[in-house]
Write a structure and sequence with these properties.
GO terms for molecular function: heme binding; molybdopterin cofactor binding; sulfite oxidase activity. The chain is of the alpha+beta class. Helix content is 13%, strand content 27%.
Length: 428
């Protein structure tokens, strides 16, 4: 999606809000002045980790379509060469097509769980795509989820994911005892040094706490077969987790008596057990505004595991002295933004409708709660007119528990939550 069409869609999404706020006319004149960050972040002494403004071309933050088309997802795949870039003949050879895909589910040789019937290629019991779809006839689930990288501040894309609960495949192996954890990995160019694995405790796989959807072996995105770039033919999707838990090009699930995580990301000094955080970022803030005129702003929020109560905004003069000992600006004069309503059309899906029996939606296709956890939502606000000068705009979330961003988990190794900073000018 190009820059002009992005602004057109965002204008349509926020039009009603700005009309009700009495700032539509001014907002329309300002759309041409909406700016996005340069490559270098804005620096400020009071902020422990300043970040650049979100750019519109990044996937997953667009107001329309709500569900990101597969081709528009941002890609952070690993591998040399990238597995999805392999020639079709090579994909067929290594099992990266629906016709040739096979999944082995077996015991960890170093810390084995006791299994009655491992699923292996050698024994001819490995799970193929046809058998997976047979399981799907009774057990298929779908749910909305934003896919986000642990170490990036912008979602990769927002999808409706469909698949079979991983537990239904694990039960096929007839596990008996010494099963404490599951780790899994995908195709890695037959190079052990390129292996990228993730893991989960068996308890999370066997049941779904806190009304979460199940961990799935995913084969569809937005109602279409999962393509190779998105991890097809089959990938793992963990609803509440960052993207590194949702391994692409799945080939192996290993059942182990290991008591601790053995994720590749753990070896790279990341927190591998931290679920999605709640945070806000801007989409549209004018580079310049007229003195004394209202200033329309808008953006999105990632709704993490702790939910979302509100988004707040604040514009501070660069000439002001900020209180010491308040790195997260808890004493600032924040004002509430408005969370934008449920989309009228669930764009990106067939006929714009959410299929029946989708987790989080009722039978009419309406969300049971709004905003929905583990997804994106959008917000808008009108700042009061300001005197001439240089300003910094910030936005933050208040989660459903009352924690103001970046709390309750401000640490970078467990996912992005830094309060964004955007510079703008007010002129005569």
């Amino acid at each position: 999606m190009d820059h002009d069409s992005f602004l057109t869609e965002h204008r349509e999404l926020t039009r009603r809000f700005f009309l009700q706020a009495g700032a539509l006319g001014f907002a329309a004149t300002q759309l041409a002045n909406f700016g996005f960050a340069d490559e270098k972040p804005t620096e400020e002494k009071q902020s422990p980790a300043p970040v650049k403004r979100t750019k519109p071309e990044k996937a997953g933050v667009r107001p329309e379509p709500y569900f990101t088309p597969s081709v528009d997802f941002r890609d952070v795949s690993r591998g040399k060469p990238l597995p999805h870039s392999l020639p079709d003949e090579k994909k067929r050879e290594v099992g990266l097509t629906r016709e040739t895909w096979q999944l082995e589910v077996l015991a960890d040789p170093d810390n084995p769980a006791k299994l009655g019937r491992p699923l292996t290629k050698e024994a001819g019991t490995a799970l193929n795509f046809e058998a997976l779809l047979k399981l799907a006839e009774k057990h298929a689930v779908r749910f909305p989820k934003v896919m986000t990288c642990l170490n990036l501040g912008c979602p990769l894309g927002m999808g409706l994911w469909e698949g079979v609960p991983l537990r239904d495949v694990i039960w096929l192996t007839q596990p008996r005892e010494n099963l404490r954890r599951v780790f899994y990995y995908g195709y890695h160019n037959d190079d052990p040094k390129q292996m990228f694995r993730s893991s989960l405790p068996i308890g999370r796989i066997l049941e779904d706490p806190y009304d979460l959807p199940p961990v799935i072996l995913c084969y569809k995105l937005n109602g279409e077969w999962l393509d190779a770039e998105r991890g097809g033919p089959v990938r793992v999707v963990v609803p509440e987790a960052y993207g590194f838990k949702s391994i692409k090009w799945l080939t192996h699930v290993v059942l182990t008596n290991l008591a601790h995580a053995n994720d590749t990301y753990a070896e790279q000094n990341n927190d591998v057990d931290s679920p999605l955080k709640t945070f806000a970022a801007s989409i549209s803030v004018p580079r310049e505004a007229k003195a004394g005129q209202p200033i329309p702003v808008s953006g999105y929020a990632q709704v993490g595991i702790s939910g979302l109560k509100k988004v707040q905004v604040w514009a501070a003069s660069e000439a002001d002295t900020l209180p010491e000992g308040d790195p997260y600006f808890t004493k600032a004069p924040w004002m509430d933004a408005e969370l934008l309503p449920v989309p009228k059309q669930w764009s990106g899906l067939n006929e714009g409708k959410v299929p029946p029996d989708t987790h989080g939606f009722d039978q009419s296709g309406a969300p049971k709660t709004w905003p929905m956890r583990l997804t994106n939502t959008h917000w808008a606000a009108v700042l009061p007119g300001l005197p001439k000068g240089d300003y910094i705009f910030r936005c933050r979330t208040i989660d459903a528990q009352g924690h103001a961003q970046p709390m309750p988990r401000p640490f970078r190794k467990s996912g992005h939550s830094t309060i964004e900073m955007v510079e703008f000018k007010v002129v005569d």
